[in-house]
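Q: I have 143 residues here and want to know how they pack in 3D. Can you give me a structure?
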Amino acid sequence: MMKRRLLSKKRSVFTTWIVSYIVIILLSVVISGIVYYETGKTFALEVNRFNMFSLKQMQNALDRRLGEIETLSIQIAWNPALDCLYLTNSRLEGHEVFNIYTSIRNLKLSTIANSFIKDLYNLYTKTRLCSHDNNLCGKLYGI
């Protein structure tokens, strides 16, 4: 009888310890799972916020660049020295070529402020001329 009591007491202590260890391990696993899940959600939210911020920044930069390009195109369109190229189909005279040269030079100076514009080409379809940097190319064939 004593042996049985001692054996049941040993089992009781053993099962109590095992159950308490299992409860502690399961509790730590459940808490770790919850923390892992919440951390994953937090990282996903931060990545999405950063991506949205980057996209907004890129959109603003592109809008600024497009605005600068639009301003430059308006400067070209309303440049009075280039009117002779838009309006004439005939050969240009000396003072018109000089006006074109100075207006191209002035446009090149205005593009210095825009670091993204490397070269500036103007194509005039009526006179079949093309201007680039400080050059005015002659008749273009195949246009």
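Q: Anything worth noting?
A: The mean pLDDT is 78. The CA atoms of residues 46 and 52 lie 10 Å apart.
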